[in-house]
Structures are given as C-alpha cells and as structure tokens.
Amino acid sequence: MSVFKYEKDADGIVTVTMDQTGPVNAMNTEYQLAMAETVARIEQEAALSGVIFASAKKTFFAGGDLNDLLAAKPGDEASFMETLEAIKGPLRRLEKLPVPVVAAINGTALGGGFEICLACNYRIAFNHKSVQLGLPEVSLGLLPGGGGVVRMVNLLGLQAALPYLLEGMKVVPEKALAAGMIHETVQSLEELLPRAKAYIKANAGNVAAAIQPWDQSGFKIPGGNASSPKLAQLLMAAPAMLAAKTRGLLPAPEQILDCAVEAARVDFDTALRIESRGLTYLVMTPQAKNMITTFFFQMNEINGGASRPQGIAPQLTKKVGVLGAGMMGQGIAYVSAMAGIDVVLKDISLDAAERGKAYTEKLLAKRVAKGRMSADEKAKILARIMPSAENDDLDGCDLIIEAVFENVELKNKIIRATEKHLDDDGIWGSNTSTLPITQLALASSRPANFIGIHFFSPVDKMPLVEIICGEQTSDTALAKAFDYARQIRKTPIVVNDSLGFFTSRTFGTYFDEGARLVVEGMHPSKIDSLGKAIGMPVGPLTVHDEVSQELSRKAFETWEQMGVADKWGEQDSLRTVIEFLTVKNGRGGRHHNGGYYDYVDGGKTLWPGVLDEYYCSNAQVPDDDIKDRLLFRQVIETLKCLESGVLRTVADGNIGSVMGIGAPVWTGGFLQFVNTYGLEKFQRRCAELADKYGDRFSCPSIVGEKILEGSMFR
Ligand code: NAD
After folding, report:
1. How far is CA 102 from CA 14, 387, 674, in A?
2. Which residue minimizes the CA distance to atom 14 of ligand 1?
3. Which N-terminal residues, if any, form the signal peptide (predicted)?
4. Please, which residues have CB within 8 angstroms of residue 360's CB and are 6 or more apart in sequence?
C-alpha cells in the first residue's frame, strides 16, 4: 500500500493524503516513489474534477531529507542532479493537470513542503500561529531546489520574492496570504478539506483555475522580467549588497540570487534546470555540510534534551528570585516573567529594583505599540515581577539566580544570606561570566543544589544559556536549570567547570590574539577588519571595547585573588594592553571613556594613543596568517575544552560557539570547522602557525587521536 492514501469521491475529486513512514513526511526515496506513482495514477484518472493534497501528519510536510543531503559528496553530482530532476518532474506534471490541484495545508510547510504547495494551483492554509510557511533552505547553506526559487519569482516577482529566498523568512498563514503566497485561510482544521472541495466544485469548467499563472499565455512576471528597466537598479545593487552582508563567505545566498535572476530571464523549464544545478553545487560545499550538521542535527539534539540527565521528572520553575537588577538581572526578570514565572527582583534598594523592573515595562510597551501584545497581557506580565530590597521576599522561590557584580566576596556573602529562603529542593544559580562554580559553591551549605546559569547580553535577544556544573552539582539541579532554560525558550548547553567555562574562555582568546597583533605593531583597523573577514560579527578590538577592558582588568584581579589566574590560555599581551589602556590612560572600554577607539556622536574613530604606543609601519604579518590566527586560537581553545572534558559534547561546542561567541555560521561552530577543513590539514596548519608565532598554536592531541581512529568531531 502506498504511503500516499488515494481516495476519489462521487464528485470526481481525488484526495491524496500524505502519510509517510515515521513522524513526518519528507522528500526521500519513499516520497519519490509515492509521488511518481500517484501523479501517474491521477493522469490516468477518468472523470476527474480536481485533486487535493493533504497530510496525515501534524506538519503538512517537513522538507528535504537532510540525511541524504549530508551524505552527498563531490563526485556524486550527476546522480544528485538526476534525483533532483526526478523529484521536480512529477511536480511539474501535477501543475499541468487539466483540473485544479489544491494544497490543503493543515500544518507547517517549509522548504520542500512549501515547494509542493507552490506546485498546486490553489493553496488554502489553517490559520494558526503554529503553522509556518516558507523556504528556509538558505539557513542551512542550501537553496530551494524543488522549484521553490523559480515558482516564487514567477509568483511574486523578483523583488518581492528575494527576502523569502535570501533570508529564508518563515511566515504564518495570515502573512503568507497578504504576501500572495497562498490564496485563502480557514479558521479550523475541520473546514480545510470541505473548503478545498468547494473551491474545486466552484471552478468546474474554469480552465484558468487549472493552469498556473506562469503557464498561461501572455503571462508576465510581476514587476517585470530581468531585462525590465524597473529592475535595472535592483540587479545592479543586489550583488554588492549581498557581498557586503555575507563577506563572500556564504555561497548559498549568492547562488540563490543568481538562480532567481535567471528565473526572471529564461523560460520556466530552463530555469528549473538552472535551479537544480545551483542546489547540486551547494549541497557539496563544506559550508552546507557544516550548517546542516550543526543548525539542524545538533540543534535538535540539544533542544531535544540530549545534555539533560535522563530519568528525572520535568522540573517546572514557578518562582524565581533574581538578585541584582542591573543589566543582566533585569533581562533575566523579563524573560522569566514572559514565560509565566513569578519573579522577585531584588537589588540593594527598592529604587534600584524598580528601575530593573522598568526595563520590562519598556520592552512590553514597545510590543503593545507594535500591536504584538494587548495592554491586558502586558499588565499581567508586569504583575509577575515583584521588585524588592528584602531577602524575606525570596521565601518560597524554587530557583534563585544571582547577577550581582563580578566580585567573589560579594557573591559569597549573598549566597549565605539568601540560600535559606529557597524551597527544600530549590536550586541556586550564579550568572557569573567566569568564576569557577566549584569554588563559588564553597560558600553554599548545599553545593549539590548550586550551579552556574550563564546568560548572554542582551538577555532578551541572545538565545543561548550556558549551564555549568560544579564538582558537586547534582543531576537534579542540572535537570532543573536545563528545564528552566527551555521554559524561558533558550537553548541550553551544558559544560563542566573551568575558569571562564567554555564560552568566556574561548572568546578570551579572540581578545588576546587581537591584542597580540596590536603589540606586534599591526594597524588596529586592519586587525578588526580581518576579524570580520573571517566572519566574526565584529573585530576583536571593537568587541573588547564593548565588553569593556575595565571588566577584564577586574576579572584578572579576581582570578588572582581566587588563585585561578593563568589556568588556561596565555594572556600576557592582553594584560599589557589592558593595563596600558585602563591603568595608564583611564580608558576602560566604550562605556568607560573609550578603549582602542574613541566614541563620539554615535560613531567611532581610532584612539591615536594606541597607534603612538604600538603601531609599526614595518611590521608584517600576512593577511592570511592574521585571519587564521584569529580563528585558530578560538578553535584550538574549543578543542582543549573538549579534550579536558569542559565540553561534554561536540554539539554543545558547536552550538555554544555560534550562539554564544559569534563563531562564523559558515564554520558550523568551532569543532565542526575542523571536520570540513580536514583534520590532517588542520594539524599541518597548526604546526606552521606554531612554528611562526608560538606554542599557543600547537594542535591539541585530540585531533591526532581522531585521525588515528579514522573519525571526526561528532
Ligand atoms: P551590573 O553592574 O549592571 O548589575 C549588578 C547589579 O547588582 C547592580 O544593580 C547592583 O546594585 C546589584 N547588587 C550589588 N550588590 C547587590 C546585593 N548585595 N544584592 C542585590 N543586588 C546587588 O552588572 P551586570 O552586567 O548585570 O553583571 C552581573 C553579573 O552577570 C556579573 O557576575 C557578570 O560577570 C555577569 N555577566 C555579565 C554579562 C554582561 O555582558 N554584562 C554577561 C554574562 C554574565
């Protein structure tokens, strides 16, 4: 029996209900067979009045089979292209049937799923916020190769289609309707099939309803074809704008733009073939392998709870105490209240706590102004946050998160003062950026319930939480922190204790290598622009100005006090430069009188003092070496974290590096980078860099071990 259920009713309407093996429908071999068979059968059907494509799954259709895409390797181009054409053929035949074909979209249809919908003459979707429509292939380094690029361009016009294709925008049915991507919505699932049938009946004999716009004679692409003067400016500017955005590091958007323009230039069927060629090229690139591995497979692993201890019942947080209503505390209060959790936001004075709560008020007011939230809902969320200056208000909290100054004595003091207010099984989390959790836990009378919950700034935007287990942290405490992170809709990575954990420690090497290049006499602007050239969001010097050198100086002091300084990395140059900036020149970073740069009128200029002190016009380090130094330092530190057990899984290292540190997306994270760079080649390049620039580039032995095993970082 086919996995596509085939039913013909008395009115001559065939309903095809897709119900593949497993939880979702996907474009794999099983689909290919079922679709080819189904289309052939429909073509033979006598007294046919229309066709409906429906789904028996919760999602309409999940898209391409990413396992197949990951497995395709250079040399397989011809067979891959053949498979693609075999997928596209039946879709083209479907849209050429002499009767209307309707997509009855009951749930999310992304990628290949939406491409099936696009090959139907009429698209009706269930109007629900859980239903997402769109073509997000670009976010995995791919292009919509099932006709998505070509049909979207023909449907919406080049200009309107580009954001959906280049940015992979996903939209709810209401928005898709407004954009012209679908034709109709229904308010309940029960209405879906009856509406589809009603549409077919209402259009019996209407020839136009059975022909796609692009197959009708005299069809013109909305907004004109590629030679239209109206598009001349777009076509001239788009490649440059795209290159500025991707910095030439991401082949997928370039291919998509190329295919989209071709779709507006050549005939429909030729365009489909160009699109197949585009996907065939992309699927073999290391960037696509990296992005699929990390952003799909490893992300699912992490959000699915692979790093959560098994066998512990879900731990719902009901009341959280947030200590410190500064930059981080106010953000933590906001995300917690948004997730329906009661919050006690405590600072040293009620005034300070109320200022912290005002942050939530400000963010919610913006939502209300944009029509994304009702005034009632806003009031309800605000009412969940109780500002306070009293420890007694923490009574009954099942979670406390500390976000006071990065000062070990202060943290110790408040641990002792507040711990007793927790529920019996309550856990106490520190949002410290660097301080070892095991050592902080010495001040706790219940170290098993003590854990690190490290947020990133700004808390409301940054999607990651780094959970740090101290030596005595229990599995239950970890499960509770993990579930809390999911409750506030963040992605949690779980790491073991170390100074700077995984993210701060690895990011520190980026600052350090930047500072070393300054000390070696390189021009600061060049260092920053080469940092961006590898795909980091900002250069190492600019980002250190943002984080603040003053904070780093204080951190060094604290580490010395705790006896943990210099436990990793080599930071002598960084210390020298920080001392030069902060102690000698009173420059502690962007918000502390400037750092490497001066900040005036919203812009920044290089501070001449740094040039006078360090710049040497004769200094020569090849650009490629600068780029690799900035990248490899971070990759090597990540490998060391894996080798020493700070990182518990490769997935945590990849997701943590992209979402917490800003590792370039094309790498798929700092560990995945090594896989596609090639382990042996990585070892060789490390040796070259170590030879020229020092031992910090020595390749961690875990790479050699993987080579011997014949495996990779998975
Ligand atoms: P902040 O200076 O903005 O806020 C600290 C707040 O703590 C202040 O409002 C202060 O009044 C309050 N406070 C001090 N003593 C207190 C006490 N005894 N009880 C209650 N409140 C008290 O600092 P921040 O940037 O929010 O950082 C807080 C913590 O988060 C630090 O440990 C920091 O390392 C960590 N962190 C910061 C970032 C970041 O990007 N800023 C990122 C991750 C982690």
Report:
1. 10, 55, 46
2. 404
3. none
4. 330, 333, 334, 337, 381, 382, 385
Supply the mean pLDDT for the chain: 96
Q: Does domain 503-623 have CATH number 1.10.1040.50?
A: yes
Instruction: Give the Cα separation of 391 and 369 in Å (integer).
Output: 35
Token couple for 218: 């005299």
C-alpha span between 166 and 70 (Å, rounded): 21
CATH 3.40.50.720 for the 319-496 domain, yes or no: yes
320-350 as b/e: b if 16+ CB within 10 A = bbbbbbeebbbbbbbbbbbbebbbbbbbeee
Confidence of residue 566 (pLDDT cuts 50, 70, 90): low
Give residue-wise pLDDT tens across range 571-617.
Answer: 788 999 999 999 999 999 999 999 999 999 889 999 999 999 999 99
Q: Whole-model pTM? A: 0.95
| CATH 3.40.718.10 for the 4-284 domain, yes or no | no
From 355, 402, 407, 433, the mutation candidate for ligand 1 (largest count of ligand atoms within 8 A of CB) is 433
Instruction: For residues 351-366, give the mean pLDDT.
Output: 98
Show Cβ contacts of residue 44 under 8 Å, excluding neighbours closer than 6 positions: none
DSSP notation for 272-299: HHHHHHHHHHHHTSHHHHHHIIIIIIIH
**Tens digits of per-residue pLDDT, 636-695?**
999 999 999 999 999 999 999 999 999 999 999 999 999 999 999 999 999 999 999 999
Q: What is the pLDDT of residues 324-338, one digit of tens each?
A: 999 999 999 999 999
What's 697's DSSP letter? Answer: G
The answer on pLDDT for 568 being more than 70 is: no
Ligand 1 neighbourhood includes 403 CB (under 6 angstroms) = yes
Q: Write out the two tokens for 132.
A: 């997402």
Maximum alpha-carbon separation in the chain: 89
- Cα of 60 vs centre of ligand 1, distance in Å, is 46
4-284 matches 319-496 in fold: no
- Residue 615: phi and psi, rounded to 5, are -65, 135
Spatial CA neighbour of 422 closest among 449, 460, 456: 449
Beta strands at 133-134 and 170-171: parallel, antiparallel or unpaired: antiparallel
DSSP at 594: B
Instruction: List Cα–Cα distances, 657 to 136, 242, 320, 470, 488, in angstroms.
Output: 22, 24, 28, 21, 20
**Domain range list for the chain:** 4-284, 319-496, 503-623
The residue from 128, 183, 421, 454 that is catalytic is 454
Q: How far is CA 229 from the centre of its chain?
A: 37
Confirm whether 454 is a catalytic residue: yes
Q: Per-residue pLDDT tens for 377-415?
A: 999 999 999 999 999 999 999 999 999 999 999 999 999
